[in-house]
Predict the structure.
Amino acid sequence: MPTTVTINPDLPDEFSVREIVRCLRAGGIIIYPTETFYGIGALFTRESTLKRLFAIKQRDAGKPVLLLIPDVAFIRNISSVVPPALETLAEYFWPGPLTLLIEAQPHLSPLITGHNRTVGIRVSINPIVQRILAPLQDGITSTSANISGDASPASIEEIPDALLNAVDVVIDGGKTPGGSPSTVFDISSTPYKTVREGAISTRQIMNVLEQTGQQAKLLPHDVQQNQ
């Protein structure tokens, strides 16, 4: 049976945070709240844990999962190429629900990068996630706490018992905002393009890039809409 920890998002207690960090470093899997839905997380550097996570979710190994990272500086650990657009978009939209796809370093697992050898990253605005990642100083997976193909849960009550009982720690941070998932925007090569429209619109992203003179690297908006 997993350990269930109830945390006040406005005042996460240090003891609980330390126990969660210890669990992750030991190869554990957690369920945790984000600024959109509940996610299932593990250290991205542990291949055996990643395989366990995919088995729990019944997720196709060809569908990579995204990462939450502690800060922009951490990107150097997962990519040797940091496009100027990353710093621009991170400044405007992070922390927040914008996932950026960038070129991945060769050592990263295919379960994270997929066949394109890119990795999706973002910095979460959820205070519980921030308090966990600050001392952890590592990245964790960010994929909905559901069986693949099912609806994303905005509360612990919406998560199947089979999934709850398969992880090591369940963090109950109350109901999450729900709504749209994070937007996934690919800046690993040009032209940049939206892979998944979500909480941040393509138009918002385009406006920021246009303001900084990077519009020439964008796939035209009407083309993106028709993909």
About this structure: The mean pLDDT is 93.
